[in-house]
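Subject: Sanity check before I submit

Could someone independently write out the structure tokens for this chain? I want to compare against mine line by line before I put it in a report. The sequence has 740 residues.
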Amino acid sequence: MKLSSLRLLVSGLRPRLTPALLPLLIVAIGALLMAFDPAPIQGLRNSMFDQYQRWQQREYVDAPVRIIDIDEESLKRLGQWPWPRTRVAELINVMRSAQPAAMGFDVVFAEPDRTSPQAMASLWLQGNKDAASSTQLSTLLQALPDHDAVMTQALAGGGVVLGFTLGPQTNVAPGEQTPLRRPAPYVEKGPSAQAALYRFESALPPLMPFQKAAAGNGVLTFKSDDDGVVRRVPLVLRYKEDPVPSFTAELLRVGQGVSTTILTSAPTLGGGSAGLQEVRIGNFSIPTTAQGEAWVHYTAPHPERYIPAWKLLSKQVPPEVLQGKLLLVGSSAQGLMDLRFSPLGQLVPGVEVHAQALEQMLSGTLLSRPGWTITTEILGMMVVGVAVGMLALNARSLLAALLSTMVIASVFSVGWLAFSQYQVLVNPLTPSLIVLASFMLCSLVHHFRSERQQRWLTEAFSRYVSPNKVAYLVKHPEGLELGGTRQTCSFIFTDLQGFTGLMESMDPGEAVSSLNAYLDGMVAIAFKHEGTLDRIMGDAVAVVFSAPVLQDDHRQRAFDCAMEMHAFSKRYAFELQAKGVRFGNTRIGVHSGEVIVGNFGGTTMFDYRALGDPVNTAARLESVNKHLGTLVCISEAIYMGCPDAVARPVGRLVLKGKKQPLMVYEPVVAGDEQTRVPLSEYKEAYGLLAAQRLNGLEPAQALRLFSQLAQSYPQDPLVRLHLVRLQRAETGDEIVMAEK
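---
Independent answer below. Compare away.
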């Protein structure tokens, strides 16, 4: 073969190497997008999670949670909101009489009651000109109980949680703002995660007497997504520099009568905090996002969770309905504007979001999105994206499309299974879209280069054929017909050590130039011995003898060819290494046996090949060199066909995937005398191994002899091999290879 032919081959391979980077580029961009998580990526993920909930809503169970609803009918019967604090106090006392676990108000009582007698007295004095009557009326009003004091007394009875809101900044002077009473203490496990919490600078708390009298105070503020949908409820937030509980968390704490909340953070590799991982309140451990939010799995609307406030105040609700439950006072009235969008595409009262979150916590049906899911999604996307891209670049379009569709369907199946069976939120949509982009762009590249590659293949392989194969086909045109015949052939397989590392460490142009010269020399030797070039696989070469032209001395030809290849490859590697190029040695395997040779394929395209176990065995003999420490391995079939060959026995190898042992030899090469044991001494030691198998002799003598040889020739690979085997108490000369 001429060097020009190899150059043509490499030039044709360049279009194949460059597009291979395209899937890597696509998945790298996708990984960056998923890691930085911009708003469009969040929107895709949230839409997927919403679809999960629409497909499988949480089944409503009768959890000990009820909403005391200030509904339209309650406003109609009892008057518009805000109600006098005396009525709120009455509501508290009625609920407390039923002995609930806790009561919470999804309402902010930030201002004094304007209907209180004292407030009315001030208004009366300002608007009445009759001083005497005004003074008399003011005295009467001042004697009446203050509404806020009545409510404070009701709150002091225990078990009530009030709500307050947080905002980004405040325009109120510090002296004019009602201070926020310090919440129940927190205990942090792991590195502090407070920096990850949502931070707010202003607060609108209840009146201080209410805060002091209430059993707890929780934040009512939701952190909805950009589309306005409430998918998560916070359990802890940050007010200035301090953590504060949410309304949901505080109600759960007061309902259990515990005084402490435990915050568990997820540590990073550097010892810092990756944010919150879990919030433990009493007996309940709730998985959270890094920002301290719990995912809400919504149910469809259920009237069972609502109790109208007017029914409660009119004593139409039996006490056992409320006993031991968490009661949330809020409003479903549209006029009060406390409505939120849910993932189910419905408007729900804000108080119901709190209630549904509490139902999940009490029933243990919690959604979670652990930190490992993000890493898994990115890594899975990268692996699948590269695989699908490479498939689209190299496989037939229909097969690539079918397999890619199956892969993407599998990804969605995994995501759905995680949600439906384990309540874990895994996002298959974003990774699948990136994988689809990889498939489409790579398919487009594949389409555009197909015609160019076909033209190149026609030109290249019209030249790149073994000379003996060309001569045979000229004389025997019937050899182009499909089919095969049985005949005995010999095979050489070669492979270059460390070629991948060489490509990484060298300039690509220099690496290709070095490989060109190496392959040119190897193939020239094969043609010199009239071998047929079966194929070149990167840096590996496969040669067959006695096909298509029969050669009676094919085993001797294969042996001589292998030894000349060995000498050339060592010389070539030494020359490059002297120049500082880390060019590796060449491993060679040689075997002979009966195979089927002929043209295999179809009427459109076929290839001349040899098929059979001897072909695989020759390839295995090449590969087994790396485990033996040798560079050339020949089978007994080759050795017996070469009367003048000088070789030493390696052993009876049971190759990976084989059951029967194969006698293997290493040729003795001139120039290796300093590193190899003299052949006579080696055969004597090896004879003891064979005698162990045949006569059952003790291994002590063989171990002693191989130990002596190893001291004198420490670089002999076969001496080291058998010494290690004997030291492991292995006997005989049969070696079972665990790897290829």
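---
OP: Matches mine. For the report I'm noting this point. Residues 1-16, 457-465 have pLDDT under 50 and may be disordered.
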